[in-house]
Amino acid sequence: MAKSGFVVGGIVGATAIILLFTFILIPSQEIGTPDLITSNGHDATTLGDTLSSSKSNLTLIELFEKSEESVVKIKVERISSATDTGGVGSGFVYDNLGHIITNAHVVDGANKTTVTFLDGSQYSAEIIGEDRFTDIAVIKVSEKPRLLHPLQMGDSSLLQVGEQVAAIGNPFGLSGSMTSGIVSQMGRLIATPDTAFSIPDVIQTDAAINPGNSGGPLLNMKGQVIGINTAIQSLTGEFVGIGFAVPSNTVSKIVPALIEDGKYNHPWIGITGQDIDPDLAQALQLKQAKGFMIITVVDGSPADKAGLKGRTITLEVGDKKYPAGGDIIISVDDKEVRKISDILIHLQREKSVGDTMVLGVLRDGEFLHITLELVERPDL
Questions:
Q1: How many CB atoms lie within 10 A of CB 196?
Q2: CB atoms within 10 A of CB 131
Q3: What is d(CA 279, CA 174) in angstroms, rounded to the nearest whole number?
Q4: Rounded to whole angstroms, what are the CA distances from 18 to 22, 90, 146, 235?
Q5: N or C: which end of the chain has fewer CB within 10 A?
Q6: Rounded distance, CA 300 to CA 371, Å?
């Protein structure tokens, strides 16, 4: 049985996310190459109050009419020593100051960024901030257009599996296209394109997401942004009913810092390891298959300073080898840990640099509480 390796708060092993399928961070659609799948996505947030939860749901027609003016096409040009490359992605209006949210991979490395609004008006934009760890970016148009209609932010923690959602963007450069579907699951973990870390708490949807949708909003039926479309899971690179969006609550933490400082400082722990599956639980003679075993501890990390222990031996059971001797994390701040995503989601939702966190660990059959102080994640 293949096992995934992860780094908590950070480093993801080579087999961490890619198992039988490939997660494709839908890159912005490259000009002249419509066969490439690129979907930049981030969740949108606005400075205004969220819509009342008591408001009745909109029809898809009403939802589109309400939201279409807020979704923009983003065209980028990149000039390298070898070739001139460009792409088209999506974004949405965040506030009345001209800030627009999109994916980091849509605008990363752009020499020129142009935003096109619903009426066809075009404006130059500058990159205000990027966070590659969550694939979120903020750009700002150089002038203040009439068509600044910020989308309102929803609470992604209230989503339920089966809830209807809609995505609006520019798939293959086709402006103002909407697709609809449902929330397939929450709390997924996907890899980032250029870092050794992963994005936690991701929304899975079957709403069609294609190249050029990257950075566009995923909306609930009240017209609130609950995610930013960012990736698909596919064997071929084409949409097969599994898309991913970074949740709006993640954006509500990240975007203000990007606007203020141009970056967001993520906390980290500094360990690698693997989930306790039934095979490993049996090899370790554990009563339940849950928790996260530490394989290695990064030197100088919060985990290292707190005294967490990594694997010390390898067990051989039949023709299989299993790691053993490492601390097994079974709780974080008194919340149960069944797998790595529980730790990463808690970090993303609840913690910031400078906070403390209490891990409940099993070490040599003894239960311990270990407190560590979170520091800024390194750029690995």
A1: 18
A2: 25
A3: 48
A4: 5, 26, 44, 11
A5: N
A6: 15
Helices (H) then strands (E): counts for the chain = 6, 26
Going 276 to 280 to 286 to 289, the CA torsion angle's sign is positive
Question: Is CATH 2.30.42.10 the right assignment for the domain spanning 267-376?
Answer: yes
Q: Which residue has the tokens 């980290």?
A: 268
- Give 164's strand partners: 182
- Among 156, 214, 248, 341, the one annotated catalytic: 214
pLDDT at 211: 83
The model's pTM: 0.82
For 12-19, the CB contacts below 8 A with 24+ separation are 12/191, 12/196, 12/197, 12/198, 13/272, 16/191, 16/198, 17/189, 17/190, 17/191, 17/198, 18/191
Q: Residue 53: what pLDDT? A: 43
pLDDT band at 11 (very low <50, low <70, confident <90, very high): very low
Return the closest-CA partner of residue 357 out of 340, 328, 334, 337.
Answer: 334
The structural domains of the chain, with segments of one domain joined by +, span 20-261, 267-376
Answer whether residue 22 shows pLDDT above 80.
no
Active-site position among 135, 201, 327, 342: 135
Q: What is the CATH number of domain 20-261?
A: 2.40.10.120
99 is catalytic: no
Residue 153 near residue 252 (C-beta atoms within 8 A): yes
What's the rounded Cα separation, in Å, for the pair 364 and 327? 8
**177 tagged catalytic:** no
Tokens at residue 309, please?
Answer: 């222990």
Rounded Cα distance, 13 and 6, in Å: 5
DSSP H helical ranges for the chain:
60-67, 104-107, 248-261, 278-283, 302-306, 340-350
**pLDDT of amino acid 87:** 84
